[in-house]
Amino acid sequence: MPQRVFALPRQESLFPPAVLNPFVQEVQLTTADKIRLLLVGSVLVPLRVLCLTVLLVLSWPLAAIATLCGPTKGTRQPIKGWRRCLGHAVVSCAGRAFFFFMGFRMTVKGKRVSSKEAPILAVAPHSSFFDGIVCVIAGLPSTVSRSENLATPVFGRFLRCLQPVLVSRLDPDSRKNTILEIERRATSCGEWPQVLIFPEGTCTNRSCLITFKQGAFIPGVPVQPVLLRYPNRHDTVTWTWQGYKARDILLLTLSQLYTNVEVEFLPPHVPTEEEKQEPYLFAHRVRDTMATALGVPVTDHTYEDCRLMISAGELTLPMEAGLVEFTKISRKLNLKWDNIKKELEGFAAIANESKGGRIGIEEFAKFLKLPISPALNELFTLFDRNGDGTVDFREYVIGLTVLCRPANTKGTIQMLFKLFDVDDDGRITQEEFTSLLRSSLGVPDLDVTKLFQDIDADGSGKITYTEFEDFALKHPEYGKLFTTYLELQRHHALHSGDTDPAAAPPTNTVSPEAEDSASDKKED
Fold first, then answer.
1. How far, in Å, CA of 461 to CA of 135, rounded?
2. Measured distance CA(431)–CA(429) in Å, rounded
3. Cα angle 190, 195, 199; round to 5
4. What pTM did the predictor assign?
5. Beta pairing, strands 462-464 & 427-429
6. How far apart are CA 401 and CA 386, in angstroms?
7. Cβ count near 499 (within 10 Å)
């Protein structure tokens, strides 16, 4: 039977992102580079470590005096008087000396405004633990930090001088309390230092700007965007989810003669009334401004994508297989992280036998326990959004949510049960089940015993409607597969000169009352 060629309109907002994986970083070093790093590093690393150690020994007592008898769990009031002056001087001087000894050469563009003009600094892209250098350049604003960090030996004292906004993993209301604290400080009319936030919430490779979290934008106060660049021949500072470990990044950076870092302060973004009411819109526009200045695209990846990457690795898939642009997919398809994680487990069950964490038509057919047929090819084509002959996890999630589940209605399930139940006794025997599948798929010797047993949950040898419905709801691919088959039958009948579409299904007079698949796809 000739296969219909469907028009496949695709919603532009669900197109793949400009940067597929912003969480991977590979430093390409030649043999000459490695030899140079070894020779230079053997001299510079010990020398720099010695200088940093001396610096900490000299500056830590002063930081301890500035925070002596201060609260260990943060403060509700800003530090004032001689403690503030001493703490600010110590951390500012020590911070600049610290990065100088590490070999950083700083370039500053633009001008930082006062806390009254812009209470919040939004810094991006966030790509390394070295990004803390912007705190020194920006005049020691408060940061957001875990409460446990205040008790860290040595560095905890320096952190207290910054009066950070604390996040507690033990507090179930931590996120809410953190936002409230940021809002309290941002609306204090300059009483508190500026609050510095990395709105991306995780490290990337700086190839794009990912989703901005809304915490910096909920207060509805002016925000000054701050850009970070590392214009170096070799990128030894980027610390992402796939790449060098922290100790390797530190060693490589200390082995460089110098490392360039550029910090640029853009004009403050004063929110409109609409942006004050819609923090998402506020964050979106600030991100667009920063992306334009950086000359990079924006994507809807977020920290939840990183969690999915880890889950993909645990399921023996390539880590990048878990990337779906979580912000976009969750918002447009109304899916929570747990839902997508569950879909990832289902995807892994199909894709583990293939290479590269993608599903081909053979794996797709094997998973459904059916041979490759026109209907199966059509369904696979609907999943394969970019037409490359494979289905990745992102396409799989969109296909299930947009195509299969809407088609898998109660009416469709009832109609399909009637098609299989030829004698209309309320049960499907293996003979009835096999006969219809062999006829519809055009495979006379098709063995569907395993599929029948999967549906026949109680092993009685007959499938009840309850068993059929339960299986169909758990595996929506089958519902879409059979409605696609019936559509192909109707299409073939129409193009053969038969004007009665209902006459197309070969085994039963029941025809689906669902819309044509073109209507299923028009919103896709």
1. 70
2. 5
3. 145
4. 0.78
5. antiparallel
6. 17
7. 7
